[in-house]
Amino acid sequence: MHVLKAQDFPRRPQEIPVEENGATQTQDKGRPRTEEPQAWDEPYPSPISDRISWVFALIVSIRLMYWKTGDPSHDRTQPPTRLTRLAYFRYASATVISSYLIVDTAAFYNLHDPYFAHPNMAIDTPIPHPARDTPTVLTLLRVLPPRLVRSASIGAHAYGLISLGGSFPTIFVIFLNKLGLIPDVWSPQNWPIFFGPFSAVVNRGLRGLWGTWWHQTVRYLGSMPGRSLSHRLGFSPGSVMDYALRATSAFILSGVIHTGLVPPEPSFATLPTWKIKLHIAAFFWVQIPAFGIEMLMLRVARRTFPNASRIFWVKLVVVGWVCGWLCLTIPVLAVALKELGYWRTYPLPLSLWQGLSGRGWWPWAEF
What we know:
The protein is mainly α. It has helices at residues 48-60, 72-75, 85-112, 136-139, 146-178, 199-213, 219-233, 240-258, 273-285, 287-304, 312-339, 352-356, and strands at residues 2-6, 15-20, 23-28, 34-35, 39-42, 67-68, 82-83. Helices cover 53% and strands 7% of the residues.
Protein backbone atom coordinates (compact mmCIF):
# COMPACT_ATOMS: atom_id res chain seq x y z
CA MET A 1 0.00 0.00 0.00
CA HIS A 2 1.25 3.47 -0.88
CA VAL A 3 0.13 6.91 0.15
CA LEU A 4 -0.17 9.69 -2.40
CA LYS A 5 1.38 12.92 -1.22
CA ALA A 6 -0.31 15.86 -2.91
CA GLN A 7 1.11 19.35 -2.88
CA ASP A 8 -1.01 22.49 -2.99
CA PHE A 9 -2.86 22.83 -6.25
CA PRO A 10 -2.19 25.68 -8.68
CA ARG A 11 -4.73 28.48 -8.63
CA ARG A 12 -4.90 28.97 -12.38
CA PRO A 13 -6.88 27.64 -15.36
CA GLN A 14 -5.95 24.03 -16.00
CA GLU A 15 -4.12 23.19 -19.21
CA ILE A 16 -4.85 19.70 -20.52
CA PRO A 17 -2.77 17.95 -23.19
CA VAL A 18 -4.89 16.95 -26.19
CA GLU A 19 -4.15 15.23 -29.48
CA GLU A 20 -5.01 17.28 -32.55
CA ASN A 21 -3.80 16.49 -36.08
CA GLY A 22 -1.12 14.20 -34.70
CA ALA A 23 0.40 16.90 -32.50
CA THR A 24 0.08 17.34 -28.77
CA GLN A 25 -1.28 20.71 -27.72
CA THR A 26 -2.72 22.19 -24.57
CA GLN A 27 -6.33 23.12 -24.12
CA ASP A 28 -7.16 25.98 -21.80
CA LYS A 29 -10.36 25.19 -19.93
CA GLY A 30 -10.85 28.88 -19.12
CA ARG A 31 -12.52 28.89 -15.74
CA PRO A 32 -12.34 25.27 -14.62
CA ARG A 33 -14.55 23.68 -12.02
CA THR A 34 -11.85 21.12 -11.30
CA GLU A 35 -8.10 21.10 -10.92
CA GLU A 36 -5.83 18.06 -10.92
CA PRO A 37 -3.38 17.68 -8.02
CA GLN A 38 0.29 16.96 -8.46
CA ALA A 39 1.01 13.82 -6.46
CA TRP A 40 3.65 11.17 -6.02
CA ASP A 41 3.87 7.76 -4.36
CA GLU A 42 5.27 7.42 -0.87
CA PRO A 43 5.95 3.78 0.13
CA TYR A 44 6.00 2.41 3.64
CA PRO A 45 8.76 4.41 5.39
CA SER A 46 11.76 2.86 7.08
CA PRO A 47 12.27 5.13 10.14
CA ILE A 48 10.00 4.14 13.00
CA SER A 49 9.00 7.77 13.65
CA ASP A 50 7.78 8.12 10.07
CA ARG A 51 5.99 4.79 10.27
CA ILE A 52 3.88 5.98 13.19
CA SER A 53 2.67 9.01 11.24
CA TRP A 54 2.11 6.84 8.15
CA VAL A 55 0.01 4.26 10.02
CA PHE A 56 -2.09 6.82 11.88
CA ALA A 57 -2.81 8.60 8.59
CA LEU A 58 -4.05 5.29 7.20
CA ILE A 59 -6.26 4.60 10.23
CA VAL A 60 -8.15 7.88 9.90
CA SER A 61 -8.50 7.58 6.10
CA ILE A 62 -11.82 5.72 6.13
CA ARG A 63 -12.47 6.26 2.43
CA LEU A 64 -8.77 5.67 1.59
CA MET A 65 -8.47 8.99 -0.19
CA TYR A 66 -4.93 9.60 -1.48
CA TRP A 67 -4.05 5.95 -0.86
CA LYS A 68 -3.12 3.30 -3.40
CA THR A 69 -4.20 -0.17 -2.31
CA GLY A 70 -3.43 -2.28 -5.36
CA ASP A 71 -7.14 -2.42 -6.23
CA PRO A 72 -7.54 -0.99 -9.76
CA SER A 73 -11.16 0.07 -9.15
CA HIS A 74 -9.95 2.25 -6.28
CA ASP A 75 -6.49 3.32 -7.43
CA ARG A 76 -7.67 4.72 -10.75
CA THR A 77 -9.74 7.29 -8.83
CA GLN A 78 -6.74 8.50 -6.83
CA PRO A 79 -5.90 11.23 -6.23
CA PRO A 80 -9.53 12.38 -6.25
CA THR A 81 -10.56 15.15 -8.62
CA ARG A 82 -10.35 18.54 -7.01
CA LEU A 83 -13.14 21.11 -7.11
CA THR A 84 -12.37 24.77 -6.71
CA ARG A 85 -13.49 26.23 -3.40
CA LEU A 86 -16.22 28.24 -5.08
CA ALA A 87 -17.51 25.21 -7.01
CA TYR A 88 -17.56 23.12 -3.86
CA PHE A 89 -19.29 25.86 -1.89
CA ARG A 90 -22.04 26.01 -4.51
CA TYR A 91 -22.39 22.25 -4.54
CA ALA A 92 -22.44 21.92 -0.74
CA SER A 93 -24.90 24.79 -0.32
CA ALA A 94 -27.31 23.32 -2.88
CA THR A 95 -26.97 19.90 -1.24
CA VAL A 96 -27.69 21.30 2.22
CA ILE A 97 -30.82 23.11 1.04
CA SER A 98 -32.20 20.16 -0.95
CA SER A 99 -31.38 17.66 1.82
CA TYR A 100 -33.01 19.87 4.43
CA LEU A 101 -36.20 20.04 2.38
CA ILE A 102 -36.18 16.28 1.82
CA VAL A 103 -35.83 15.57 5.55
CA ASP A 104 -38.51 18.12 6.37
CA THR A 105 -40.92 16.59 3.85
CA ALA A 106 -40.35 13.03 5.06
CA ALA A 107 -40.52 13.99 8.74
CA PHE A 108 -43.71 15.96 8.19
CA TYR A 109 -45.37 12.98 6.56
CA ASN A 110 -44.16 10.63 9.31
CA LEU A 111 -45.71 12.97 11.87
CA HIS A 112 -49.16 12.36 10.36
CA ASP A 113 -48.89 8.61 9.72
CA PRO A 114 -49.57 6.50 12.86
CA TYR A 115 -47.38 3.72 11.43
CA PHE A 116 -44.28 5.60 12.56
CA ALA A 117 -45.57 5.99 16.13
CA HIS A 118 -46.83 2.44 16.74
CA PRO A 119 -44.16 -0.28 16.81
CA ASN A 120 -46.65 -3.10 16.21
CA MET A 121 -48.40 -1.58 13.18
CA ALA A 122 -47.60 -3.40 9.93
CA ILE A 123 -46.25 -1.44 7.00
CA ASP A 124 -49.14 -2.61 4.76
CA THR A 125 -51.76 -1.22 7.14
CA PRO A 126 -53.95 1.16 5.10
CA ILE A 127 -53.17 4.81 5.58
CA PRO A 128 -55.96 6.07 7.85
CA HIS A 129 -58.47 8.71 6.86
CA PRO A 130 -56.95 12.14 7.42
CA ALA A 131 -57.95 14.33 10.31
CA ARG A 132 -59.47 17.74 9.68
CA ASP A 133 -56.15 19.51 10.13
CA THR A 134 -54.23 17.17 7.81
CA PRO A 135 -52.79 19.03 4.80
CA THR A 136 -54.42 18.20 1.47
CA VAL A 137 -51.13 17.11 -0.08
CA LEU A 138 -50.89 14.26 2.44
CA THR A 139 -54.41 13.06 1.80
CA LEU A 140 -53.52 12.52 -1.86
CA LEU A 141 -50.96 9.88 -0.84
CA ARG A 142 -53.78 7.56 0.28
CA VAL A 143 -54.28 6.49 -3.35
CA LEU A 144 -50.79 4.90 -3.38
CA PRO A 145 -49.83 1.56 -1.80
CA PRO A 146 -49.00 2.13 1.90
CA ARG A 147 -45.80 0.09 1.64
CA LEU A 148 -44.54 2.24 -1.23
CA VAL A 149 -45.32 5.53 0.52
CA ARG A 150 -43.80 4.51 3.85
CA SER A 151 -40.72 2.88 2.33
CA ALA A 152 -40.12 5.99 0.20
CA SER A 153 -40.46 8.21 3.27
CA ILE A 154 -37.99 6.10 5.25
CA GLY A 155 -35.50 6.06 2.38
CA ALA A 156 -35.83 9.80 1.80
CA HIS A 157 -35.42 10.46 5.52
CA ALA A 158 -32.22 8.41 5.66
CA TYR A 159 -30.77 9.92 2.50
CA GLY A 160 -31.59 13.48 3.56
CA LEU A 161 -30.09 13.15 7.03
CA ILE A 162 -26.89 11.46 5.82
CA SER A 163 -26.47 13.91 2.95
CA LEU A 164 -27.12 16.87 5.24
CA GLY A 165 -24.66 15.59 7.83
CA GLY A 166 -22.04 14.96 5.18
CA SER A 167 -22.33 18.40 3.57
CA PHE A 168 -23.28 21.02 6.14
CA PRO A 169 -20.11 20.87 8.33
CA THR A 170 -17.83 20.99 5.29
CA ILE A 171 -18.99 24.48 4.37
CA PHE A 172 -17.21 25.81 7.45
CA VAL A 173 -14.13 23.70 6.75
CA ILE A 174 -13.49 25.25 3.33
CA PHE A 175 -13.47 28.69 4.97
CA LEU A 176 -10.84 27.44 7.42
CA ASN A 177 -8.85 26.22 4.44
CA LYS A 178 -9.25 29.59 2.72
CA LEU A 179 -7.84 31.27 5.83
CA GLY A 180 -4.89 28.88 5.78
CA LEU A 181 -5.83 27.23 9.08
CA ILE A 182 -5.96 23.72 7.60
CA PRO A 183 -3.96 22.24 4.69
CA ASP A 184 -5.44 21.61 1.25
CA VAL A 185 -5.43 17.84 1.63
CA TRP A 186 -7.80 18.14 4.62
CA SER A 187 -10.20 20.46 2.84
CA PRO A 188 -13.39 18.89 1.41
CA GLN A 189 -13.08 20.38 -2.07
CA ASN A 190 -10.25 17.85 -2.52
CA TRP A 191 -12.38 14.86 -1.49
CA PRO A 192 -14.72 12.75 -3.62
CA ILE A 193 -18.33 13.96 -3.61
CA PHE A 194 -20.19 12.29 -0.73
CA PHE A 195 -23.01 10.89 -2.91
CA GLY A 196 -22.57 9.90 -6.53
CA PRO A 197 -24.89 10.61 -9.47
CA PHE A 198 -28.41 9.18 -9.19
CA SER A 199 -28.18 8.19 -12.86
CA ALA A 200 -26.15 5.18 -11.66
CA VAL A 201 -29.35 3.75 -10.16
CA VAL A 202 -31.21 4.13 -13.46
CA ASN A 203 -28.37 2.58 -15.45
CA ARG A 204 -27.17 -0.17 -13.10
CA GLY A 205 -29.97 -0.84 -10.64
CA LEU A 206 -29.07 -1.90 -7.11
CA ARG A 207 -25.41 -2.23 -8.04
CA GLY A 208 -25.42 1.40 -9.09
CA LEU A 209 -27.37 2.41 -5.99
CA TRP A 210 -25.00 0.80 -3.48
CA GLY A 211 -21.80 0.95 -5.52
CA THR A 212 -21.94 4.48 -6.96
CA TRP A 213 -24.83 6.67 -5.80
CA TRP A 214 -24.93 5.90 -2.05
CA HIS A 215 -22.11 7.20 0.09
CA GLN A 216 -18.97 5.04 -0.12
CA THR A 217 -17.71 5.58 3.41
CA VAL A 218 -16.97 1.94 4.20
CA ARG A 219 -17.02 0.44 0.71
CA TYR A 220 -13.31 -0.21 0.31
CA LEU A 221 -12.63 -1.17 3.90
CA GLY A 222 -15.62 -3.52 3.90
CA SER A 223 -14.68 -5.17 0.64
CA MET A 224 -11.02 -5.74 1.52
CA PRO A 225 -11.53 -9.19 3.13
CA GLY A 226 -13.43 -10.31 0.03
CA ARG A 227 -10.70 -8.96 -2.22
CA SER A 228 -8.04 -10.80 -0.21
CA LEU A 229 -10.00 -14.07 -0.32
CA SER A 230 -10.56 -13.67 -4.06
CA HIS A 231 -6.83 -13.19 -4.58
CA ARG A 232 -5.99 -16.27 -2.53
CA LEU A 233 -8.49 -18.38 -4.42
CA GLY A 234 -6.99 -17.26 -7.72
CA PHE A 235 -9.94 -15.36 -9.15
CA SER A 236 -8.97 -12.68 -11.63
CA PRO A 237 -9.79 -9.07 -10.67
CA GLY A 238 -13.09 -7.97 -12.12
CA SER A 239 -14.41 -11.50 -12.61
CA VAL A 240 -17.88 -12.50 -11.44
CA MET A 241 -16.53 -14.46 -8.47
CA ASP A 242 -14.19 -11.64 -7.51
CA TYR A 243 -17.11 -9.18 -7.59
CA ALA A 244 -19.34 -11.57 -5.64
CA LEU A 245 -16.78 -12.03 -2.86
CA ARG A 246 -16.18 -8.30 -2.56
CA ALA A 247 -19.86 -7.45 -2.45
CA THR A 248 -20.56 -10.20 0.09
CA SER A 249 -17.73 -9.01 2.33
CA ALA A 250 -18.84 -5.36 2.08
CA PHE A 251 -22.48 -6.02 2.99
CA ILE A 252 -21.73 -8.48 5.77
CA LEU A 253 -19.35 -6.06 7.47
CA SER A 254 -21.64 -3.09 6.79
CA GLY A 255 -24.47 -4.90 8.53
CA VAL A 256 -22.27 -5.61 11.54
CA ILE A 257 -21.01 -2.02 11.68
CA HIS A 258 -24.52 -0.55 11.58
CA THR A 259 -25.61 -2.62 14.57
CA GLY A 260 -23.57 -0.09 16.53
CA LEU A 261 -26.55 2.25 16.16
CA VAL A 262 -28.32 0.23 18.85
CA PRO A 263 -27.52 1.28 22.45
CA PRO A 264 -27.23 -1.39 25.17
CA GLU A 265 -30.67 -0.50 26.55
CA PRO A 266 -32.89 1.35 24.02
CA SER A 267 -35.31 3.67 25.82
CA PHE A 268 -38.44 2.88 23.77
CA ALA A 269 -37.80 -0.70 22.68
CA THR A 270 -40.39 -3.44 22.99
CA LEU A 271 -38.08 -6.04 21.41
CA PRO A 272 -34.87 -7.51 22.84
CA THR A 273 -31.73 -5.62 21.85
CA TRP A 274 -30.37 -8.55 19.86
CA LYS A 275 -33.49 -8.64 17.69
CA ILE A 276 -33.19 -4.95 16.92
CA LYS A 277 -29.57 -5.45 15.88
CA LEU A 278 -30.53 -8.43 13.78
CA HIS A 279 -33.13 -6.38 11.88
CA ILE A 280 -30.53 -3.72 11.08
CA ALA A 281 -27.90 -6.23 9.96
CA ALA A 282 -30.43 -8.25 7.98
CA PHE A 283 -31.33 -5.24 5.85
CA PHE A 284 -27.75 -5.13 4.56
CA TRP A 285 -27.29 -8.88 4.33
CA VAL A 286 -30.35 -9.40 2.13
CA GLN A 287 -28.86 -7.06 -0.47
CA ILE A 288 -26.31 -9.77 -1.32
CA PRO A 289 -28.67 -12.16 -3.15
CA ALA A 290 -30.27 -9.18 -4.89
CA PHE A 291 -26.96 -8.50 -6.65
CA GLY A 292 -26.94 -12.06 -7.98
CA ILE A 293 -30.54 -11.78 -9.16
CA GLU A 294 -29.79 -8.49 -10.86
CA MET A 295 -26.71 -9.80 -12.65
CA LEU A 296 -28.68 -12.82 -13.88
CA MET A 297 -31.45 -10.57 -15.21
CA LEU A 298 -28.83 -8.39 -16.86
CA ARG A 299 -27.32 -11.37 -18.64
CA VAL A 300 -30.72 -12.45 -19.96
CA ALA A 301 -31.55 -8.88 -21.04
CA ARG A 302 -28.29 -8.49 -22.94
CA ARG A 303 -28.86 -11.71 -24.83
CA THR A 304 -32.39 -10.67 -25.74
CA PHE A 305 -31.71 -6.98 -26.36
CA PRO A 306 -28.07 -6.26 -27.33
CA ASN A 307 -28.56 -2.53 -26.63
CA ALA A 308 -30.65 -3.04 -23.49
CA SER A 309 -28.81 -0.36 -21.51
CA ARG A 310 -29.94 2.28 -24.03
CA ILE A 311 -33.60 1.30 -24.24
CA PHE A 312 -35.88 3.63 -22.30
CA TRP A 313 -38.39 1.03 -21.16
CA VAL A 314 -35.56 -1.17 -19.92
CA LYS A 315 -34.46 1.70 -17.68
CA LEU A 316 -38.03 1.91 -16.36
CA VAL A 317 -37.90 -1.80 -15.56
CA VAL A 318 -34.61 -1.27 -13.72
CA VAL A 319 -36.09 1.56 -11.64
CA GLY A 320 -39.17 -0.57 -10.95
CA TRP A 321 -36.95 -3.46 -9.83
CA VAL A 322 -35.02 -1.21 -7.45
CA CYS A 323 -38.22 0.26 -5.98
CA GLY A 324 -39.77 -3.18 -5.60
CA TRP A 325 -36.73 -4.64 -3.86
CA LEU A 326 -36.44 -1.70 -1.47
CA CYS A 327 -40.15 -1.91 -0.67
CA LEU A 328 -39.50 -5.53 0.26
CA THR A 329 -36.43 -4.92 2.40
CA ILE A 330 -36.80 -1.43 3.94
CA PRO A 331 -39.60 -2.66 6.25
CA VAL A 332 -37.01 -4.97 7.86
CA LEU A 333 -34.96 -1.92 8.78
CA ALA A 334 -38.07 0.07 9.73
CA VAL A 335 -38.82 -2.34 12.59
CA ALA A 336 -35.51 -1.46 14.21
CA LEU A 337 -35.84 2.27 13.60
CA LYS A 338 -39.29 2.36 15.20
CA GLU A 339 -37.98 0.40 18.17
CA LEU A 340 -35.20 2.97 18.58
CA GLY A 341 -37.72 5.84 18.56
CA TYR A 342 -36.25 7.58 15.53
CA TRP A 343 -39.51 9.31 14.69
CA ARG A 344 -40.54 10.39 18.16
CA THR A 345 -38.74 13.74 17.79
CA TYR A 346 -38.81 16.06 14.81
CA PRO A 347 -35.25 15.99 13.37
CA LEU A 348 -35.05 19.68 12.36
CA PRO A 349 -35.24 22.88 14.43
CA LEU A 350 -37.00 24.80 11.64
CA SER A 351 -39.77 23.25 9.53
CA LEU A 352 -41.13 24.82 6.38
CA TRP A 353 -43.97 22.30 6.16
CA GLN A 354 -45.06 22.72 9.75
CA GLY A 355 -44.97 26.48 9.43
CA LEU A 356 -47.09 26.50 6.27
CA SER A 357 -49.60 24.12 7.85
CA GLY A 358 -50.05 26.37 10.89
CA ARG A 359 -48.34 24.06 13.39
CA GLY A 360 -45.50 26.50 14.08
CA TRP A 361 -42.17 27.09 12.41
CA TRP A 362 -40.03 25.84 15.32
CA PRO A 363 -40.68 22.16 16.17
CA TRP A 364 -38.09 22.30 18.94
CA ALA A 365 -39.72 25.27 20.67
CA GLU A 366 -41.43 22.99 23.20
CA PHE A 367 -38.05 21.79 24.39
